Amino acid sequence: MTTVLVATTGGHLTQLHGLAERIPPDPDAVWVTHANEQSTSLLQGRDVEYVPYVGQKDVPGVLRCMRHAHRLYRERRPTRAVSTGSGIALGYLPYLAARGVECHYIESAARVGGPSLTGRILRWVPRVRTYTQSRRWSGGPWRYGGNGFDAYEAVPAERELGERVKVVVTVGTAAEFPFRRLVLPLAKLLAADGPLAQALGRPIDVLWQTGCTPVDDLPITATPFLPAADLMGALAEADIVVSHAGTGSALANLGAGRFAVMASREAEFGEAADDHQRELADELAARGLAVHRAPADITVDDLVATLSTAVRRASEVPPFELRP
């Protein structure tokens, strides 16, 4: 028996990687995703087939994936397919379901208020089982199977600072949406002689993971993308984390034990296709797992306050329940 695990890079892949540990395993599994620093690091040692990137409303990309799905089915004869989206799921689940493969689509945990475009399409595809990670809109074709954030809980902590304060700023792996609105105010707040350094009385070391955001005109040393293992290591060592409100970044922060300040991309500024990040950030704040602020509203007090909270993995993590 073989399971195909399909996800776009970024938060979708991070979610699937975590949820795969909570579903009954098959003896064989093959991952299908795009190749970048995150995926090649996160899936090192796994059986992976890399395919060209499928962007927003990318019909040609979906059709290319269907051709690959045909070859994959012919060569591997999968018995189950699981995907967390996004558009790449449209190239695999309908084809594999038509071939009799047991198919499951798990909507992103970022979709707190309702399904994505991919989800709205797949819920009408015969033999594709659909799941939500939000109890708020479960029902009908959408079964609540669990939530990726169930694995974490916040706990009081007092982080002792060293001689230098380590800060990580991460905007995720989005290839289409810059987030300069977050980087600009932080460049001033986290400057060598800026407000945070003055408040803490220590020099500040900042890792800037900036993705596709243009920052050449800013006085920062940026790293557009990092391998997953390198970013996780930096998050684990960080004193303070500021992050965009993407699901992958949220899970990375929590997995590293960090209680982060999160800022959401907004559609009105051309930073996202919709405002699902705002919904996710509000959900994480309600769970006590992060602080949600607009980029221009982040203060030194917000950053310092995160030092008194840590995140740990819950002692009991329930399985994610797939329908037979």
TrEMBL record:
InterPro entries linked: Glyco_trans_28_C
UniProt superkingdom: Bacteria
Protein's organism: Pseudonocardia cypriaca
Ranges of residues in domain Glycosyl transferase family 28 C-terminal: 167-295
Entry GO MF terms: hexosyltransferase activity
Cell inner membrane as UniProt keyword: no
Annotated protein name in UniProt: UDP-N-acetylglucosamine:LPS N-acetylglucosamine transferase
Signal peptide: none
Protein keywords: Transferase
